[in-house]
Amino acid sequence: MRYEWLVGLRYTRSRKRAQGRNRFISFISLVSMAGIALGVTALITVLSVMNGFQDELRSRILGVASHAEVTGFDGRLTNWQQVSEQVRRNPEVLAAAPYVQAQGMLSLDDAVRGTLVRGVLPADEETVADFARYMRVGSLDALAPGRFGIVLGLELAHALRAQVGEKVTLIAPQGLVTPAAVLPRLKQFTVVGIFEAGMYEFDSGLALIHMADAQVLYRMGDEVSGLRIKVGDLFDAPRVARELASDMGGRLAIRDWTMSHANFFRAVALEKKMMAIILFLIVAVAAFNIVSTLVMAVQEKYADIAILRTLGASPSSVMAIFVLQGTVIGVVGLIIGTAGGIALASNLDVVIPFLERLLGTTLWNKEVYYITDMPSTVLASDVWTIVTVSFVLTLLAAIYPSWRAARVNPAEALRYE
């Protein structure tokens, strides 16, 4: 082992006869180490929770929406069976389901609510969406052609005060032209199910009916609004959408989920980045405490530095000794913080209930967030980024005091010894 390592490690772990200034330097070192550990723990935990939220929201949105959609530029898709066969030829496409989508108004007694009406084929819809796990009452299979059944979102059902078995009136914007006036088209539907996706946008504004009933109500004939597509990997949806658009020669409009919900996911990604920057400032503050520690250590070790220089130690060797001392403080804090962050982020389902019992309060309201447990996903890429940036900060913090130590003049340092 080179003597720089021996001396640097000895300075770091030496606690004998720590009195006065030496004891204060040791205290500052511990504070710096604890600050780095807490900062890294907070970073890993917060980013893991945000990853979990992002995954949970993505799965909830795509459980009701679709990975991609094929529609006509006029909002209608003719010969949809042929288009479906062409779409399915792509090896990345797992399923495709037709749908009819239009605006409508639902009324029950004195309650009236605007809604998005989606006509679906229940068997095909289950291959591209995940309504089965969101159904609270009834089943999507209860939708049958000609029976005019309807499945409502939970918030929409609450607003209408509708229950399964009750009849609601669906009013279509297309009217009937008569000599007297233009009369709205309306039809009574029987509520056969209620779903809760956990996304207010869908729970309060989406109603499902059978596609054949929607074609009759909205005068679509044999046409549909488009096809909903599911691919093997949702992150490949943009590439698959481009491939399908190329195969179809630009005759149809194709949108993937990143385009349909672009602003939402951009906002989540921006929030994650800003939280990371803010929390990195905590690590930076703790890292730059190392500057104070090493500056005082250099002042304390002036005589030792001078003796090393007179024995032949080069300035770079002296600098390496104190860089090593600062790096050890940072690395120990990093190890503790990384282990603590991964352990905490991986066990939030145990930690949150424990804190709620300890504090006698509710930290995670399941009725507000629609999620039973706080989601958390630890990504190796996030951990490596945090560790790397934190290590660089501690290394930078150690360079200036070490450079000052390397510039100590032996004659000046030993003059009053």
Query: What is the molecular shape?
Result: elongated
If you average the pLDDT, what whole number results? Answer: 80
Number of strands: 10
* Order of strands across the main sheet: 2-3-8-5-7-6
Structural class: alpha+beta
Strand and helix order: HHEHEEHEEHEEHEHEHEHHHHHHHH
How many helical stretches? 16
Low-confidence stretches: 16-20
Instruction: Work out the radius of gyration.
Output: 33 Å
**Which percent bin holds the helix content?**
55-70%
Overall structural domain count: 2
Largest sheet, if any? 6 strands, mixed, barrel
N-end to C-end Cα span = 30 Å
Strand content: 15-25%
Question: What tags apply to this protein structure?
Answer:
417 residues, alpha+beta, 16 helices, 56% helix, 19% strand, elongated
Structure commentary:
With 417 residues, this protein is of the alpha+beta class. It folds into 2 domains: 3-59 and 265-414, no CATH class; 67-259, no CATH class. It has 16 helices and 10 strands. It has helices at 3-13, 21-64, 80-88, 122-128, 154-160, 200-203, 211-217, 237-247, 257-260, 262-300, 302-310, 315-346, 348-359, 366-369, 380-406, 410-414, and strands at residues 68-71, 93-108, 111-120, 135-138, 149-153, 167-177, 182-195, 206-210, 226-231, 253-256. The chain has a 6-stranded mixed beta barrel, surrounded by 4 helices. Strand 2 and strand 3 (111-120) form a beta hairpin. The radius of gyration is 33 Å and the shape is elongated. The model is unreliable at 16-20 (pLDDT under 50).
